[in-house]
Write a sequence for this structure.
């Protein structure tokens, strides 16, 4: 009994056999990954109303901004042209007509939904994500057309400073 | 039959977490690539002819802010207070005087109830957003258009 115990103790402390197999201790890595994963998933879940511009749009920075509470029609003025709901509508040369047509289509769609669903109302809000270099002359035309189609409350998207 | 809870037959059980790590690596890479780290804020504006609330109560003073090139904001005041003021927003002291001017116009004496914002045609959105950021401090409805 005593002998076998001593043997076991001795076996415990003797140098491990050099079998050539190495095992990495990755338990701590798994812990870190789990925390990272939870953090990223939580971020995605809480940012349900995240609006992001397309690749060609560089938003300017702005002070004293507000958060977006509800979704709205997304109009984007990128470097190359105008996008509505991330779909390219027209470039800046003679964009008025296709832009106007697309806006009225969106409005009609909204009215149709509002007719059959009481919870949906006519929404006068639009989100305008404009590139920092877009001139005011273009923005003015876009705003005028938005107002013409019933979008009178516009939110300009900028990067929070 | 007896359950043997003794330590003689104890075995070290290792859970193979390598596939989990593989899954996590793929998932985290995907989430990091698709995540957007930019936080976007918004300026609320109305288009001309739709600022109903502001039109109902006749303001004592009307303020038109014209954004010029080189970060210059021009205040055109009409009504109880008349005049034109220019603020260079690249200078901190000018920004301070713009803010104090807004506070004065907002006071009971002048009762400013909305800000009309316009810009020169060639002025980019970057300059406009800079001016609007300072105007938003007044917490008044902002109307953007041609004035």
């Amino acid at each position: 009994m005593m002998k076998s115990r001593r043997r076991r103790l001795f076996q415990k402390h003797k140098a491990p056999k050099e079998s050539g197999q190495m095992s990495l201790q990755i338990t701590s890595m798994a812990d870190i990954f789990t925390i990272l994963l939870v953090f990223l998933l939580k971020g995605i879940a809480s940012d349900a109303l995240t609006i992001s511009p397309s690749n060609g749009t560089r938003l300017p920075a702005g002070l004293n901004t507000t958060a977006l509470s509800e979704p709205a029609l997304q109009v984007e003025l990128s470097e190359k042209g105008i996008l509505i709901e991330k779909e390219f509508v027209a470039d800046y040369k003679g964009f008025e007509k296709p832009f106007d047509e697309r806006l009225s289509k969106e409005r009609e769609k909204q009215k149709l939904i509002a007719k059959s669903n009481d919870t949906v109302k006519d929404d006068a809000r639009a989100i305008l994500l404009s590139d920092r270099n877009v001139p005011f002359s273009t923005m003015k035309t876009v705003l005028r057309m938005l107002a013409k189609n019933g979008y009178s409350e516009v939110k300009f998207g900028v990067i929070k400073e | 039959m007896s359950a043997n809870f003794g330590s003689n037959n104890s075995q070290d059980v290792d859970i193979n977490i390598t596939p989990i790590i593989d899954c996590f690596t793929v998932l985290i890479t995907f989430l990091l690539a698709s995540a957007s780290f930019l936080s976007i804020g918004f300026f609320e504006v109305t288009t001309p002819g739709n600022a109903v609330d502001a039109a109902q109560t006749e303001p004592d003073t009307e303020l038109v802010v014209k954004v010029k090139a080189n970060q210059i904001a021009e205040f055109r005041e009409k009504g109880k207070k008349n005049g034109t003021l220019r603020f260079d927003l690249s200078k901190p002291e000018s920004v301070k005087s713009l803010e104090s001017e807004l506070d004065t116009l907002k006071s009971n004496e002048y009762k400013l109830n909305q800000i009309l914002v316009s810009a020169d045609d060639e002025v980019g959105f970057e300059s406009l957003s800079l001016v609007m950021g300072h105007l938003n401090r007044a917490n008044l409805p902002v109307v953007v258009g041609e004035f």
